[in-house]
């Protein structure tokens, strides 16, 4: 059974090997970063890449009191989310005094003058004591290649529903292999810890002689940024179009709990549905509370292939301190029904 | 369209009409209680009934610094929940210095000596400045009876999927009427605010000439008790047996978020499934966080008629601060699969 995982991707630029330049994929990376900050000090850090790791690490670094700047090739942080939700993320970054610089390409790293390192970007020069490169990961497939195993279109190891590779008796699980996506009906690369756990259990069952399959995922994912929960599931419009679906979407802002209760409860939900069937295809949510919980419920709805007409009237455990009578899920589904 | 609501039930006991004895069903009741406490003072209160209203009001009274005692005919508070979860509720009451006396029948109320009122119970005598009777509500069906409308077995007005009563052109919604239960496949009386909202919208559509039906509910419900979320959905074992299902259940204690994160995160989930089909029939949850969110997701699973094999591997938006890699939902479903 192959569990060769993935490695952080580092663009081939001069200076990427300098001391103070890090990636974060495993426990050793984390220890290296903590040791560096503790022993050498860090006044300012640059995070290259505004994905999950970049966002989580910007919070971790800022919480240590380090001046933090995030740059990304794309114009917005967490660009898989709708621009309206990226705005909420940008506002949170700004509230926490983290600078974001979009449309920015890192070109090289060298020794700095005022700080330990200097990052040369197409937009100018920035100095910092530490640079974290978090621009994605690549599956480790060398061993699989050496074994002659089939590699999928995604670049990760091809497996079937039993986690078996193209060679009988050889299994693969986790960040090195693909997983079946229940909405796009295709094999995708979604290297996440919970998926890896499920794949591991399925492979273990089969290897141990007790047949089991992993039916697939719906693409549920989330991260936390200070007080903000950011979550998504299923397909966005462009992924849906690529599948031949007819996506139509709506964004609403509701409250995670009843309006009468205290606390920051604004919750944004975006839903994407198929105009041909009225079925849910995907959803995104952002808010100080309740975003992940709604995305989990909608992941269940996606798994069941539910239509908006059912989702708009789902029965939830309503009580004012824990949710409004009309949940943001209901409101989003009803809004989207009007646009179908 | 009848929206005659429900009234608080008051047992026919001597002294129920005395000043300082209250029920809580509407805004006027709430104003009366607040005015009484403000103008007359209240050192000690007795809450009769340990259901939703009794639990929520015991928190409200205690938060005002009032010594609070809850009594109930049944041995446990919130007795619809499993005894193991009632224990968690009892612990929370005790932590908040609220006394609970189970198996206690109120027999009469009279003027008190040290306090304004005296409650005579089968177990003894208790004095207090205020008594709140919260032993349930009854649908207001007088007008419906006068109109000759069919009343259901539950005592509430019979309606169809369009919210139409037994007489064409007469509709009913809210706490005065029944609702269809998707799991028991029967018409039940679940007078909750979110259900009333849905019924109102469906009746309005039909009255306005735009056909619409309410497909039903799954029995989702919750309340908050200080820091504890208490929620349930679907059927419990006895309700399931009454329907001819073959209930088997499991209780597990997991964590609402990853074990490595700070905070009180212990979460109990009970699942009930049908041994014949492996399908989920109901669930309960109790915890400082995440109980309602799990019950909402499971309400969606119930609506979709999902089996435990699917629920045990549902794809959620995993990230350590918002949920563990194996969610308590997965763990409970897997535990229950072993018992099928």
Describe the structure.
- Two copies of one chain form a homodimer.
- Chain A has 340 residues and is α/β, with parallel strands linked by helices.
- Chain A folds into three domains: 121 residues, FAD/NAD(P)-binding domain (3-Layer(bba) Sandwich), CATH 3.50.50.60; 70 residues, FAD/NAD(P)-binding domain; 119 residues, FAD/NAD(P)-binding domain, CATH 3.50.50.
- Chain A is built from nine helices and 17 strands.
- In chain A, helix 3 links the parallel strand 4 and strand 5.
Brief rundown of the structure:
Two copies of one chain form a homodimer. By secondary structure, chain A is an alpha/beta fold. In chain A, 28% of the residues lie in helices and 25% in strands.
Give the neighbour order of strands across the main sheet of chain A: 2-9-3-4-5
Q: What is the terminal-to-terminal distance of chain A? A: 46 Å
Oligomer status: homodimer
Measured on Cα atoms, how large is the radius of gyration of chain A?
A: 22 Å
Under CATH, the topology of the largest domain in chain A is which?
Answer: FAD/NAD(P)-binding domain
Low-confidence stretches of chain A: none
Keywords:
alpha/beta, five-stranded antiparallel beta sheet, 3 domains, homodimer, FAD/NAD(P)-binding domain, 340 residues
Task: Give the SSE layout.
The structure is a homodimer of 340-residue chains.
Chain A: E1 6-8, E2 21-22, H1 27-40, E3 44-48, H2 52-63, E4 67-71, H3 83-95, E5 98-101, E6 106-111, E7 117-121, E8 124-128, E9 130-133, E10 137-139, H4 142-146, E11 179-181, E12 186-188, H5 193-207, E13 221-225, E14 228-234, H6 237-242, E15 247-255, E16 266-274, E17 280-287, H7 291-303, H8 308-311, H9 328-339
Parallel strand pairs in A: 2-9, 3-4, 3-9, 4-5
Antiparallel strand pairs in A: 1-10, 6-7, 7-8, 11-12, 13-14, 14-17, 15-16, 16-17
